[in-house]
Amino acid sequence: METLNHKEVINLLLQLATMLIVARVFAEVARKFKQPAVVGEILAGIIIGPTIFGSLFPAAQEYLFSSHPMSNIALDGFVQIAVVLLLFIAGLEVELQVVWNQGKNALKIAIASMVLPIIAGFVLAYAFPEFLGVNINDRIVASTFFGLAISITALAVVARILMDLNLFKTPTGLLIIAAAMIVDVLGWIVFSVILSLSESGSGGLGVWPTIGLTLFFTFFMLTLGKGLINKTLPWINKKLAWPGGLLSLSLASCFLAASFTEFIGIHAIFGAFIIGVALGDSEHLTEKAKEILHQFINNIFAPIFFLSIGLKVNFIAAFDPGIVGVVVIVGLLTKYWGAYIGGRFASLPRKKAMVVGFGLSTRGSMDIILGLIALENGLITEALFIGLVILALISSVSSGPLMGWAGKLKI
Amino acid sequence: MNWKIRLFEIPILAHMFTKIALAVAFSPRMEALLAETKRLVELFLSDLILIHVGEKTEELENEFQEVLRRHGLDIDRTTIIWKQGKPAKMILEACKESKVDLLVAGAMKEEGFLKYYMGSVGRKIIRKSPCSVLTLIDPKPETTSFSKVVLNGTQLEITPFVIAKGVVFSREVKAEQVHILNEIKMYGLQMGAASEDSEGEIAQTRRQLVQDEIDYVHEILKGIETNDLKINIKVTGGKWAIELGRFCKKIEADLLVVGDDQRLTFFDRLFPHDLEDLLSTLPCNLLILKI
Fold it and tell me: Is A34 touching B (CB cutoff 8 A)?
């Protein structure tokens, strides 16, 4: 087995240490301004990446992040694992019972909040592929990808905002949470289907077998798979070390599911997400265990991933104000109006529908992962990816104040 | 915290159950079930409806009269309904037609209701019943003592009603201890979201989540006459149905009271949730209240 040499090990450790320290510093700054940690972590990446640190101190930046290719490969492995784990906890956050209890109203809001941005994004990207920077050779898939990327809601971020606004347990708060959960599930199913249609994403099984396997995998994991988890978890909790046994085996099952979905030609993260949903819905996975998983992944792996975005892209060199402007405006307006219309269809009064609209407009997690996958698969350009990141930053910063403002309106 | 407890919507509790029904299958356990039902009828000054699904014969009619006499039931306040057809459907139809408030059902292990009713018919009745259902897992001729009662206090729209009615029921059956169990909804997600904070803030969030649940129950209890009932509020962080089941088993509860404001369907069994979880285990006698 090939190993890293002495210098490469040092370089890798320095990379990780720098990333964790800078991400922590900026997350704390974001916290001081009552902003989600993800905002600080993304900004930290932009600052220590080629955009700022690389421009001011090119030699130091190059030594840290470009001098040892083997270290960079190892770092990429960390980032890949971070993405898989982020999707795993995103799945754990989905509670089918909450979705079930909120019923049709949450479904209406979730679907409307996705359909409008997907259609608008698709039409826009399909009509102006060169302007926006979507792959003209894979136009349908790339355009759908763009639409999907602007239709996602960041569940963890919106949960935090709702808690801060004291809205989490209110009917409106629960409706937003349930709708965001549905958006997550639908978003990743649509994502995996689109990816299987993409020329660069198909793993060789063919489109229809891949779609069939995806749907079968999802259904299996949420029914029989969940039953299997319910049978084995009590044994794990009782017989193995706690929480060590549970943590290692749940992560092992996450990686197994991720490798399976990667094998069938859709991205590994889909498997991680679905097993997260199945595991999180089990009554034997205690809330304490969920909390530990959250803390461990949110504070170690999430910063590494969100910061790594800034290392991959130069946010000044590839910045295109036209593209960013269009992405931000279309993204904000379509998501808000989609959710608002869904809320009105669900018979919500105007004020509550506005709160729901702003709530579901919160981004800053899965949408960035989606954008990054599209970038890595050559479906979108760096300029468009930057637009998606800026959309995520603006929406996650503005959602809370806008929800608070809408909630106080006298209408 | 912005509680939305609408106590004024709780129906007047003076008459807990105006009409109590029992489905009679002439099984060996019928005597015990009748004794249990008679006790409730007398406690709540209710009318009794006996439902029999099967052909009405002279022999059965005589048997019914004999049963009524043996149990000393008030014939003027007892109605016998004869139905023919599928048991579950007919029992539910009779309950609906007679505007029954509470249906008493047995769920025994040896025979009868568990196999016959709980296996398929019983569960169908609980899932689709238009009225409240009291499921007794081991009915006794000397009647069951509901000494330890557990109420579901988890924040749901129906919860103020469940607590109010559950407390009155506990008072009437002279329960020694009432436990109200609350689930903190999505505790893991909330604490995960709070993990961006400092240690002190996280501890404060944790305390606040627990305190919110206690305040919620206290707010409901304010409007209810509890007399000398000993009430204990317990807060958990799991899924309420599962936690209720575990808690009832742990304290060997005599009765669990939950609410149900929706009819369960096939999909609830495919993706089991809350009540369906509870029905699959039946940790103790179960009273499902419906508005």
Answer: no
Furthest C-alpha separation in chain B = 77
Given a contact cutoff of 8 angstroms between Cβ atoms, the answer to whether B149 and B178 are in contact is yes
Per residue in A262-303, pLDDT (tens digit) is 888 778 888 999 999 999 888 788 888 888 888 889 889 999
Element containing residue A259 per DSSP (H, E) = helix A244-263
Where do the structural domains in chain B lie, given as residue ranges?
2-290
Question: Rounded distance, CA A226 to CA B265, Å?
Answer: 20
Question: Measured between alpha carbons, how far is A359 from B60 in angstroms, rounded to an integer?
Answer: 64
Please report the ipTM that was assigned to this predicted complex. 0.77
User: Which of B5, B182, B186, B236 is best to mutate for the A interface (most A CBs within 10 A)?
Assistant: B186
B34's tokens = 């009748």
Name which of A31, A166, A291 is nearest B191 (Cβ-Cβ). A291
Reduce the DSSP state of residue B239 to 3 states and report it: coil
Asked whether the beta carbons of residue A97 and residue B273 sit closer than 8 angstroms, the reply is yes
Q: Does B203 touch chain A (CB under 8 A)?
A: no
CATH of domain B2-290: 3.40.50.12370
Q: Residue B159: what residue type?
A: T
Structure tokens at A251: 């992560």
Q: Do B238 and A92 touch (CB under 8 A)?
A: no
Chain A contact present for B274, CB below 8 A:
yes
